[in-house]
Design brief:
globular, DNA-binding transcription factor activity, MarR/SlyA-like, Arc Repressor Mutant, subunit A, 7 helices, 2 strands, mainly alpha
Length: 158
């Protein structure tokens, strides 16, 4: 069925949502680069969140992200090389190696959260607090119950 308003075809909604997401993420990473984190990329935020506060293995990380163990290992290698993750022996199982977030990685996450707060404030200044709050409420209504999923990289990749 065609959209009743030809000026607002249905395909534009996901594109506009993606454009808003992309704008926020691009602005975030520009600010992170200015604050000493030029190596961080959008995927890295998902990875750091998936590693969590207690660490994980590369296999578990791949499962959490919905990507292969090999892809997870390659991403971990890159984030270890730039100081956001570290590999350590698992104290509960000497055969396993854990991946953990370093202090530099935790700093990147903290700065990301602070920057997202500032970006939201900018949107509220431009659109009005009530409209931004209504947008957030509406998106919560329409999003699935488990809307915060770390497997977005795997979902995008198919």
């Amino acid at each position: 069925m065609a959209t009743a308003d030809p000026a607002r075809p249905g395909f534009q909604l996901p594109l506009l949502l993606l454009a808003g997401f992309r704008t926020l993420i691009d602005d975030l990473h520009a600010e992170l680069a200015r604050q000493g984190h030029p190596e961080l990329r959008p995927l890295h935020g998902f990875v750091l969140q998936a590693v969590g506060v207690h660490g994980t293995t590369a296999t578990e990380l791949g499962q959490r992200l919905g990507i292969s163990k090999q892809a997870a290992g390659k991403t971990v290698d890159r984030l270890v090389a730039v100081g956001y993750l570290e590999r350590v022996d698992d104290p509960s199982d000497a055969r396993r190696r854990l991946v953990r977030v370093t202090e530099h990685g935790a700093d990147g996450l903290r700065r990301s959260a602070e920057t997202f707060d500032r970006l939201r404030e900018q949107w509220a200044e431009a659109l009005g607090e009530e409209r931004v709050a209504a947008l957030e409420d509406d998106l919560r209504t329409m999003a699935s119950a488990n809307w915060f999923r770390l497997d977005v990289p795997g979902w995008f990749g198919g």
